[in-house]
């Protein structure tokens, strides 16, 4: 995760940076003592505190690690019967071998304190605790044979998990499969946590995690500078595949930007679909002050200099001022326990002109 820009609008003044880093160490120490994600302990709403929270959040994300709930891991109370998003009712009798087929779902399971019960992962579970687990997907396709070889007692999927034939094979083998709705906005984080905790028989742990995340999000939002409403365009780029899209209503980034006190430039420009091909006209209408991207997307077009070669980018206020914020792919739209860290960073990065001005 990094921010690219010119002058103090993105790179904080040296004195401010040192002060922020000093405060960040204090925030990290307090948060670790309290079992939080690392940025939720401070209630100071000053610009310096927002920078410190962002520094602490960046430190936590750089570790690429999960912070479980405090205390002993919860003991599942089973059996439970829950609704599955594919219209079924699914009974879970054993949560000793859990297999999440989504990175965000895996983060929630680990944060609930059930990581030692997880037996495998999909390609999007990239946090450190999951790396050692066997991968059961090739690209984004699930291998039923790989899943069944791990002898899971419950599989957690979402409606995007596929191919559907693989999900059917897993169910036909007698494994309970609980399907969840995809998380596409901030409010989905607590909803999904509640459903996962219910399916695994640890409802109280789910409530505790939701409270922790709600408190952290409130603290992050408190750092939004009064009167600052920058326009931010979320660009989804994959240069090697010639994919150049700008986010609009429903992209997921629009929800994050709203929480960070920013305006989604694509939505304001009238883009009513989650993603629309980038055109010079669309960029001219959006006129973003800041561009938000996934790190691999920025790398795929040759970094900042390559991004500025895309027609229309250099002519936007964001392009002219070289104001680009990028964050790791699996975290930015992960909508999981680390999402409050994303908001901490966005609050600091997208409002920096207003803070330094």
UniProtKB/TrEMBL annotation:
Extent of the signal sequence: 1-33
Keywords assigned: Signal
Every Fe/B12 periplasmic-binding domain range: 97-354
Listed PROSITE patterns: FE_B12_PBP, PROKAR_LIPOPROTEIN
Gene3D superfamilies xrefs: Nitrogenase molybdenum iron protein domain
Pfam hit, one: Peripla_BP_2
Family from the record: Belongs to the bacterial solute-binding protein 8 family.
Protein name: ABC transporter substrate-binding protein
Organism the protein comes from: Streptomyces phaeoluteigriseus
């Amino acid at each position: 995760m990094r921010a690219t820009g010119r002058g103090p609008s993105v790179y904080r003044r040296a004195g401010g940076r040192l002060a922020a880093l000093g405060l960040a160490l204090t925030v990290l120490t307090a948060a670790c003592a309290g079992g939080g994600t690392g940025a939720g302990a401070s209630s100071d709403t000053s610009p310096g505190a927002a920078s410190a929270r962002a520094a602490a959040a960046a430190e936590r994300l750089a570790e690429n690690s999960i912070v479980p709930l405090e205390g002993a891991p919860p003991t599942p109370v089973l059996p439970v019967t829950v609704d599955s998003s594919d219209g079924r009712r699914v009974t879970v009798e054993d949560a000793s071998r859990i297999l999440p087929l989504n990175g965000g779902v895996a983060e929630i399971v680990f944060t609930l304190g059930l990581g030692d019960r997880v037996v495998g992962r999909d390609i999007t579970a990239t946090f450190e605790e999951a790396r050692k687990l066997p991968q059961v997907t090739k690209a984004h396709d699930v291998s039923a044979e790989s899943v069944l070889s791990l002898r899971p007692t419950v599989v957690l999927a979402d409606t995007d998990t596929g191919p559907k034939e693989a999900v059917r094979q897993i169910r036909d083998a007698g494994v309970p499969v609980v399907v969840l709705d995809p998380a596409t906005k901030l409010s989905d984080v607590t909803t999904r946590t509640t459903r996962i905790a219910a399916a695994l028989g640890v409802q109280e742990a789910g409530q505790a995690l939701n409270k922790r995340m709600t408190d952290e999000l409130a603290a992050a939002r408190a750092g939004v500078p009064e009167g600052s409403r920058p326009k931010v365009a979320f660009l989804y780029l994959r240069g090697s595949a010639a994919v150049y899209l700008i986010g609009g209503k429903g992209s997921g980034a629009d929800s994050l930007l709203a929480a960070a006190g920013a305006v989604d430039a694509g939505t304001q420009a009238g883009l009513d679909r989650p993603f629309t091909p980038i055109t010079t006209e669309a960029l001219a209408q959006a006129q973003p002050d800041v561009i938000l991207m996934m790190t691999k997307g920025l790398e795929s077009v040759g970094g900042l200099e390559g991004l500025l070669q895309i027609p229309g980018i250099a002519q936007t206020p964001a392009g002219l001022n070289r104001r680009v914020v990028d964050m790791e792919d699996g975290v930015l739209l992960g909508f999981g326990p680390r999402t409050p860290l994303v908001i901490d960073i966005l609050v600091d990065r997208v409002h920096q002109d207003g803070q330094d001005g």
